[in-house]
Amino acid sequence: MQAEYLRVPHADNTLYHTPADLSDEALVMLSDILPTGYEIGVLKGKVEPDCSVSIVGSGPVGLAALLTAQFYSPAKLIMVDLDDNRLDTAVSFGATHKINSSDPEKAIQEIYDLTDGRGVHGKPVEFDLDKLWIRNINVTTGLVSTNTTPQLLKALESHKIEPEKLVTHYFNLSEIEKAYEVFSKAADHHAIKVIIENDISEG
Fold it and tell me: How many alpha carbons lie under 13 Å from residue 178 in its C-beta half-sphere?
């Protein structure tokens, strides 16, 4: 919430106590991108040991998926993006391979080469459910529910992951328009995640 104060109805049902030694930056990531990347990218994607994972888009959620995919020790973590700076960041966070997708055909071929011919289809498809069910094909979608927050909180406490490293820029609340401007041109500013801090004095 981008505001000086926030009222949370039924807070006892939705909020978690956090250890005092966790940084605000880590907790901001826990409130949004970490559970999204983990629940929708990693858990719905059924990441498991020794598998190959390709993440298309190394923005905050993609990088959160990269961090949490490492819980399951995949053999390959392939990050795909147009921004070389973000790809380099992904490698520093544990990606085993980076692919610049400015040439889509080349990028798809690189993924095929790294995954023994498996990868994204790259074009619209039709699902013939009457034929697919017998082949044990699973299709998953979903919205983040944050039911993994306790697990992720423990990962933060043990420093198994350090999502605060995703924060690249800080702005005061009075500078929020500038913050949006910077984030809208993230590649130009090497921005990944922006933190808005309260600078409004009381009274």
Answer: 10
